[in-house]
């Protein structure tokens, strides 16, 4: 027996608003039946689990224990700039001079996520 990961649940203050940010990040649409003010909103990925945004009364107060890692279809630096333009904030820099590593950003509600080396970033041998 096994279990399949159906979705990644993200607690938030504004389910539709945060889903809109992640929809722009991933290029995937918000579920067509979702609308502003909904307490639950989905962004369905082309592959893998759905991003499920669940409105909760409490605000985020500590570092995430689980987070998303993104691999951009461009360079990591271009993607970091794009995400900052969408409303993300820069949290920490773990990029190394050899091109490896990652950048940690946070979405508009403070949930941390990583941006890994992108498809346009050549691996160093």
UniProtKB/TrEMBL annotation:
Annotated ranges, domain Glyoxalase-like: 8-116
InterPro entries reported for this sequence: Glyas_Bleomycin-R_OHBP_Dase, Glyoxalase_6
Domain of life: Bacteria
Designated name of the protein: VOC family protein
């Amino acid at each position: 027996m096994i279990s399949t990961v159906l979705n990644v649940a993200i607690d938030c203050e504004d389910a539709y608003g945060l889903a809109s940010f992640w929809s722009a990040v991933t290029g995937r649409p918000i579920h067509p039946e979702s609308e502003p003010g909904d307490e639950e909103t989905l962004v369905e990925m082309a592959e893998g689990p759905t991003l499920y945004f669940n409105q909760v009364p409490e605000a985020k107060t500590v570092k995430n224990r689980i987070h998303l890692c993104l691999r951009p279809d461009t360079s990591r630096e271009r993607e970091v700039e794009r995400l900052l333009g969408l409303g993300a904030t820069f949290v920490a820099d773990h990029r190394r001079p050899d091109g490896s590593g990652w950048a940690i950003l946070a979405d508009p509600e403070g949930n941390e996520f990583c941006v890994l080396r992108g498809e346009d970033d050549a691996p160093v041998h």
